Every structure is written in structure tokens, then in C-alpha cells.
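Anyone up for a design puzzle?
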């Protein structure tokens, strides 16, 4: 979950590393560091606990040397607390190599035992690898061979980058179940956890398959397997606009990303509707015959992506009439799940690198199941290891709390539901076209609801001292309520829980006390009158017990007015699309409550954007 960047070239190495780290800081921000080696074999290392700003401060008082070769790291602590000593890079004991690492070395204890005579500077598994590499280099005399020998001894998950003072102009790296991409420039080469690390310098990227060793110099790259056999690679052009990963004048990335949701939805639909009917070209690889045979779907995801999966489930079942289960990736493979050859697995992941989801997808593939990845990150590991990928075109999502990716994941799953419905003949053409026509209005409707910001801001400021908020919904409103609660926990550190409204009377209603704020997601009375009246009854039940009701309701619905303290209006739409609108005020609410509490909206404590450890 750490961010790593490597650079070889004649540019401003420290500047390239720092700007890369700034774009990767979402991956972890406990500490950061850089190491640079110049062509005369001098090296320098600067690192500091805290966010990147601390490292920048250190570099002002103690500048790095100029040099052609540099590695940088932003950390999310696993082995050892977030201290200066545990920050990466790490030197070997003799200072001959510097090394950074993302992941966990599982045989760390055995390796450490071999080094009983060494006094380590940190508590990290990484320093052990640096020391082993320094020793191996002293024996074999060349960095690449030494690195290969050490890498083959490691167990766990890792992306490693290392450079030697005896071989300036070269970085060796390896990946095993942890991300790594290469950037190709003119007379310069880059490595990164993802393309954000170098997109401002080059749009040419090379995806690196698992279990590869990559060597970069200013003139090019070599990619081999762990045994040294040359590996095939494919170059691609990065589709993201580098400016998309900047704040662009917004106070936070999250604010910018909430406001980008209309475009995220529109871009995810674009190119997938042909003459009013959904046709996802990426699914051609699976063949219509297979999609007709599918008798069950399992959606695998974590966190917000899992809530998107829960919402997508309603649409797929409704339109394609295939049973769908949604399971947290980390629970799936440890319970001996039952499936047959016609079970289709769909993973949902913004980053495409979430280790829990990657492992679950690999497990499904080992059982012979077909897998589709819904992913926001081009050429990430999960889509590359799946049979087909449906990309969500939300653009880079930098804030740790997911917003625009969530909406685009829901839309991608809904498009998938409509594609399956067409292939399986499960929906009349007329119903299909009507649904698509409504889906195409969603970007404008999301734009309308993004504009409720001011109203929600006032509400959040008024509720600044709240220490518990509940969220209620039924049907698709239930996972939407879970997402509203997650946003508040994540960035405002407030106890928040989402409930299925019907479940309340089975226990949680005991939580309702005088003044307890409760967000209620009210379904449309037009399209879902039965559920609507049930939710209105639920509102009355909790209102009678003193709850303060914040109702998110469709424009024109007056039934809740007598019982709600605050009413937030969203445009009219079909029931299955309601989450795309109802979640937006809750995103703003979490953002504003975090802001009013003086917290870091984009980088909440203890979290990282991409969870690449199990
Ligand atoms: C919450 C959030 C997380 C992620 C989860 C999965 O705002 O961002 O819950 O949704 O860690 O991440 P991806 O989608 O990258 O697999």
C-alpha cells in the first residue's frame, strides 16, 4: 500500500521523485523518503516520518545531491511504526545499496535470523532485504545477479526497487503480487506503483506482469522472469490527462472528485450504447453463448466497491434475471465456496490492485471460473488477470474516500446487467430502450444533485458536534445507506451505521434517543409506492422516539414533510438509479463535517487508497 517511484535520467531527480510521491501519496502517508546516487558513486538518503510535507521541509534544510538515479517511497506502515527510522529507503549495512519496498516479506523472521550479527537501524522487513542485497552484491559483484538471487529467496508480497552506488544509472526492481509499472521517456525511464508516479513526464507506459524483474537505465528497460528469461511486454499510452490528477483549484481532491461525477458517469456509458441498446465491446471476448449459459453471478469486492456491487446486484437480477450474490473478497475464498462451470465472477475495484480482491479473483480462476473485472485503472493487475475488463472512466481518483469511482462502478454493473439482458433475451427491446434512455439522463441529474452542496454544507456546520449518525434505506437504499455511513466514518471519524430500514425494529431502534441524527433515503412514491409508504412509517417510528430526521427525497414528494427536520431533494429517476443521486448529498455531508472538524479530507488517518496487503 506504499507508493514507490524510481527515476534514471538527466532531469531533476529529486524533483521527479517528489512530484511522483505527491501523486502517489494517496497510497500511504505515514512517512516518506528518497535516495539519490550520482555518477561518481556518491549517495544521499533523506527520509522523515509524517506526510510528504515533512520530507519537503527536511530537503529545504538538507538538500539532496544531484544525480541520475533516484528512488522514492511514501509509506503505509506494516512492519514497524511510522517513525523516521522505519521510513524507506533503507541502506544495506555497508551502504552499498539503497532499497524501497511495498508489501510484506512473510519469511522476514527466518531471514532476520541469518543476520544475527547485524545491528539493524529499523524494525522493518525491508531493511533485512537491503542488508541481504548488500551482502550478495559483495559476493557476486553485479547488482542484477545479486538482486535476482535475493528476490528468489523472498516469500510474501513485494515490489522492490534497488540501486547500487557501484552501478549508478541503473535501478533494479521486482514485483510479486504487488503493483509496478514502467514509464518510457526520451533519455529517461521511470518506475512507479502506478502511472500517476510519472504521467506528467511521459504518456508511454509498460505494464509489468507478476513475477518479473525489471532493470531500467536512461536508455531503456529490460524485463525478465525471476530466472532471467526475457519476458514479453506491451507498451500502452496512458489515457489519463495529467491535469486530472491535480486539485484544479478545489480545496480538496474529494470535493473535485464529487463534482466530477456527472462526467464519470457519462464517460462510463460512452461507447457502450448502440442505437439505444447496450453493447459492451469488451465482453465480446467471453462470447454470447457463454453469457447465455451463466446461471449465477458472484460479485467480489471490498468497501465502497462492495456497496457498488450490492447496488449493481438489484439491476442485474431485475434485468438479466440471473441470481447474483455479493461477497467481500476477503471472506470468499476462505469458506470453500460452491460453484459450477457456469458461475461468472465479477470483481469490482477502483484501483485494480486490492490484494483481497486480486486473491479472490485468482482463486476463482484456479477453480476454472470466468472472471470480469470492473476497474478504474488501466492495465492494473486485476483487469489484466481477468477474462474481460469493463473499465470505469472516472479518471484518477486521488482522495482516499471513493466517490466518483463508486458512481461509475454502479453504472458499469448496470450496463453489464443490460448487456446480459440483451444477450439472454431477458428484457423486451422496449423496456431495454426505456431503461437506457433513463440511464442517459443520469449525468445531468447527478449534476443537479452535486449542486445541493450549499444546503448540505449548512447542515453539516450546524451538526459539527454530532458524534453519531445513522443512515436508513430499503432495497437499493440499503447499500446506499451503508456507503453514506462509511464515508462519514472514514473522513469525519464519526460513529456512523447504515441499516436496512426494516431491520430497525429488530434491535437498532434502541439506539434512537433524543436528537439522534438519522439520514433516511426515501424511495420514489411514483415507482415504488409500497416501499415508499414503508419508509415513511419507519420515519414516523423513529421520529416518535426523538430522532432528528434528514430525509433525502425525490422532488415533489411531500409525504415526509410533516416528519422530517431537513429535506434534501434529488431529481426524479427510476428506482434502480436512485443510489446514483441519493449518495451525493451524503458524500458532501461527510466532506463538510470532516472540514468543519479541521481534519484532512483527502488523507484520513490510518487509511490508504490502495490496499495491497491482505
Ligand atoms: C472507501 C474506499 C474503500 C475502497 C476499498 C476497495 O471510500 O475507498 O472502501 O472502496 O478499499 O478499493 P478498490 O476499489 O481499489 O478495490
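Challenge accepted. My sequence:
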Amino acid at each position: 500500500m506504499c507508493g514507490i517511484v524510481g527515476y534514471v535520467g538527466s532531469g531533476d531527480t529529486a524533483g521527479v521523485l517528489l512530484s511522483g510521491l505527491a501523486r502517489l501519496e494517496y497510497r500511504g502517508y505515514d512517512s516518506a523518503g528518497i535516495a539519490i546516487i550520482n555518477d561518481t558513486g556518491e549517495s544521499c538518503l533523506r527520509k522523515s516520518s509524517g506526510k510528504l510535507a515533512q520530507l519537503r521541509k527536511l530537503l529545504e534544510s538538507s538538500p539532496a545531491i544531484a544525480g541520475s538515479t533516484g528512488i522514492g517511497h511514501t509509506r503505509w506502515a506494516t512492519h514497524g511504526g511510522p517513525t523516521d527510522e522505519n521510513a524507506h529507503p533503507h541502506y544495506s549495512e555497508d551502504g552499498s545499496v539503497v532499497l524501497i519496498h511495498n508489501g510484506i516479506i512473510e519469511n522476514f523472521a527466518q531471514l532476520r535470523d541469518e543476520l544475527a550479527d547485524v545491528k539493524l537501524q529499523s524494525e522493518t522487513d525491508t531493511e533485512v532485504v537491503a542488508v541481504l542485497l548488500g551482502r550478495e552484491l559483495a559476493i557476486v559483484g553485479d547488482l542484477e545477479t545479486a538482486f535476482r538471487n535475493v528476490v528468489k529467496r523472498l516469500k510474501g508480497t513485494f515490489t522492490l526497487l534497488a540501486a547500487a552506488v557501484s552501478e549508478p544509472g541503473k535501478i533494479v526492481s521486482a514485483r510479486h503480487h504487488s503493483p509496478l509499472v514502467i514509464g518510457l521517456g526520451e533519455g529517461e525511464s521511470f518506475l512507479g506503483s502506478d502511472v500517476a508516479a510519472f504521467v506528467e513526464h511521459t504518456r508511454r507506459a509498460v505494464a509489468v506482469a507478476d513475477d518479473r524483474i525489471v532493470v531500467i537505465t536512461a536508455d531503456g528497460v529490460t524485463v525478465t522472469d525471476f530466472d532471467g528469461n526475457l519476458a514479453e511486454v506491451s507498451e500502452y499510452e496512458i489515457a489519463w490527462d495529467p491535469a486530472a490528477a491535480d486539485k484544479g483549484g478545489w480545496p480538496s481532491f474529494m470535493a473535485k472528485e464529487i463534482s466530477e461525477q456527472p462526467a464519470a458517469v457519462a464517460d462510463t456509458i460512452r461507447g457502450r450504447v448502440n442505437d439505444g441498446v447496450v453493447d459492451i465491446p469488451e465482453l465480446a471476448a467471453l462470447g454470447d453463448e457463454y453469457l447465455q449459459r451463466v446461471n449465477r453471478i458472484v460479485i467480489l469486492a471490498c468497501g465502497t466497491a462492495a456497496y457498488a456491487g450490492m447496488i449493481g446486484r438489484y439491476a442485474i437480477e431485475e434485468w438479466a434475471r440471473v441470481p447474483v450474490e455479493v461477497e467481500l473478497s476477503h471472506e470468499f475464498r476462505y469458506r470453500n465456496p460452491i460453484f459450477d462451470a457456469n458461475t461468472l465472477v465479477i470483481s469490482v475495484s477502483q484501483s485494480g490492485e486490492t490484494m483481497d480482491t486480486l486473491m479472490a479473483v485468482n482463486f476463482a480462476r484456479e477453480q476454472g471460473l470466468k472472471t470480469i473485472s470492473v476497474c478504474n485503472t488501466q492495465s492494473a493487475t486485476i483487469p489484466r488477470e481477468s477474462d474481460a475488463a469493463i473499465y470505469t472512466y472516472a479518471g484518477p481518483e486521488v482522495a482516499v474516500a471513493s466517490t466518483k469511482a463508486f458512481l461509475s462502478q454502479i453504472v458499469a454493473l448496470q450496463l453489464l446487467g443490460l448487456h446480459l439482458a440483451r444477450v439472454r433475451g431477458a428484457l423486451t427491446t422496449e423496456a431495454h430502450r426505456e431503461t437506457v434512455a433513463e440511464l442517459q439522463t443520469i449525468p445531468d441529474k447527478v449534476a443537479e444533485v452535486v449542486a445541493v452542496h450549499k444546503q448540505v454544507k449548512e447542515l453539516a456546520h450546524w451538526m459539527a458536534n454530532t458524534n453519531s449518525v445513522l443512515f436508513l434505506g430499503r432495497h437499493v437504499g440499503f447499500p446506499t445507506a451503508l456507503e453514506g455511513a462509511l464515508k462519514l466514518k472514514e473522513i469525519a471519524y464519526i460513529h456512523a451505521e447504515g441499516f436496512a430500514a426494516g431491520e430497525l425494529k429488530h434491535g437498532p431502534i434502541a439506539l434512537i434517543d433524543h436528537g439522534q441524527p438519522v439520514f433516511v433515503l426515501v424511495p420514489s412514491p411514483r415507482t415504488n409506492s409500497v416501499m415508499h409508504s414503508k419508509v415513511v412509517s419507519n420515519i414516523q417510528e423513529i421520529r416518535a422516539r426523538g430522532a432528528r430526521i434528514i430525509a433525502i427525497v425525490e422532488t415533489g414528494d411531500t409525504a415526509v414533510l410533516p416528519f422530517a427536520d431537513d429535506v434534501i431533494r434529488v431529481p426524479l429517476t427510476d428506482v434502480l438509479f436512485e443510489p446514483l443521486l441519493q449518495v451525493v448529498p451524503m458524500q458532501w455531508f461527510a466532506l463538510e463535517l470532516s472540514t468543519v472538524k479541521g481534519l484532512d479530507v483527502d488523507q484520513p488517518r490510518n487509511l490508504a487508497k490502495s490496499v495491497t496487503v491482505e
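A detail worth pointing out: The chain has a mean pLDDT of 94.
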